[in-house]
Write a structure and sequence with these properties.
The protein is about 35% helix and about 20% strand. By secondary structure, it is an alpha+beta fold. The structure holds iron/sulfur cluster (2 copies). The site of one iron/sulfur cluster has 13 residues, from helix 9.
Length: about 350
């Protein structure tokens, strides 16, 4: 693997060159938060972001899209939402999120829509710095060794650029004068210092090794009911999670012989309709049962199949859930700690 050096001032010049190849999408400001969006103005790219509201899974599988048009004669697949893109500024945890989706949508159940978008998207990763919600060190997704075409580590004065694929190498060849192969000892020391400082900067840690057993041992613990009572069943935790992948399909038909459409939309196991079957029976009517399903998948079931949690430590559920139900508070409750979260306070109010 080749590692090159790029001067800070040359980043936008490099992006200008590769912009001719495909649309660039990157983190940009939206109010006081960040979103991945198509770049029209390079000065709007945010290099110092933590998490975006929605992870880049929205580029591979949009929240809603038409799978195919159909009529009496047959159907025609619709790939019109897929186009060539360069995704710049994606952090290691979100690259791990895509690698998790790859397991399902490429290896287990090949999904032509996901695979089509994945093939047409180049991944240009960017290093980041943890805030109080990040815990990717605990999920070991703070380091990335695969899944990118180029990866930029921001060392203040310059970037170290890892080339992760032949397509990444081709991008570099479009602007060879901007990159330097000669790294000095000083450059390497700057990288080692940055790496050590980042390791120490994490404020949230979770012991994922014990989680599968605790999920089993605490399956009937009272806190599940308390969390379920507080849960708003809004589904936001799934929408923002880079590894959540459930979806629903529904047909849209029209009068006058127009072709129908099969629409695919993101779904969440925390929503009441998720476990509803024909006849109106619902196997998980109670919100606590739906939360247990979500956390069983994240902390236990995925570990037994793949040897790691289906959580990449991005902190989005922590930043998003309006009542404080998230991997951190559930992990603390599983460990038997007194949790200082809105859902816990609510249950204390009710029992007063
Ligand atoms: S469970 Fe929460 S912290 Fe883990 S990947 Fe999903 S949103 Fe991020
Ligand atoms: S856990 Fe939080 S984010 Fe998820 S559905 Fe319940 S209230 Fe919404």
């Amino acid at each position: 693997m080749r590692i090159l050096k790029l001067k800070k001032a040359d980043l936008y010049r490099f992006l200008e060159v590769i912009y001719k190849e495909a649309d660039i999408w990157a983190p940009q400001k939206k109010g006081d938060k960040f979103v991945f969006d198509r770049v029209d103005d390079f000065s709007k790219i945010e290099l110092q972001t933590t998490r975006t509201i929605i992870p880049p899974k929205k580029i591979m599988v949009p929240p809603m899209f038409n799978m195919f048009d159909f009529n009496e004669a047959g159907y025609k697949e619709d790939f019109s939402h897929i186009s060539k893109k360069i995704l710049f500024g994606i952090h290691p945890c979100d690259i791990h999120g895509l690698l998790t989706l790859d397991k399902l949508f490429i290896q287990e159940y090949p999904d032509p829509y996901y695979m089509g978008a994945r093939e047409k998207t180049l991944i240009l990763g960017l290093s980041c710095w943890p805030d109080e919600h990040c815990f990717c060190k605990s999920t070991r997704t703070n380091i990335i060794e695969e899944g990118y075409d180029l990866f930029f580590t921001d060392l203040d004065e310059f970037f170290l650029v890892w080339i992760g694929s032949s397509q990444g190498d081709d991008l570099v060849k479009l602007a060879p004068d901007k990159f330097d192969e000669n790294l000095s000892d000083k450059d390497i020391q700057a990288y080692i210092r940055w790496q050590n400082d980042k390791e120490k900067a994490f404020k949230t840690e979770i012991d994922f090794v014990t989680m599968p057993d605790l999920m089993e041992l605490k399956y009937k613990a009272p806190f599940w009911q308390e969390a379920g009572d507080a849960c708003l069943a809004c589904g936001s935790c799934s929408m923002v999670c880079p590894t959540c992948n459930c979806y629903n399909v529904a047909d849209k038909t029209f009068l006058g012989g127009k072709p129908g459409k099969r629409i695919r939309t993101w779904d969440s196991c925390t929503l009441p309709e998720y476990s509803e079957v024909a006849g109106g029976e619902n196997f998980r009517e109670d919100k606590s049962d739906r939360l247990k399903l979500w956390y069983t998948h994240k902390l236990q079931a995925y570990v037994s199949k793949y040897g790691k949690p289906s959580c990449v430590g991005c902190g989005r559920c922590i930043a998003t859930c309006p009542v404080g139900i998230n991997v951190k508070t559930i992990a603390r409750a599983l460990e038997g700690e007194e949790v200082d979260a809105f859902w816990k306070k609510m249950s204390r109010e009710v029992t007063k």
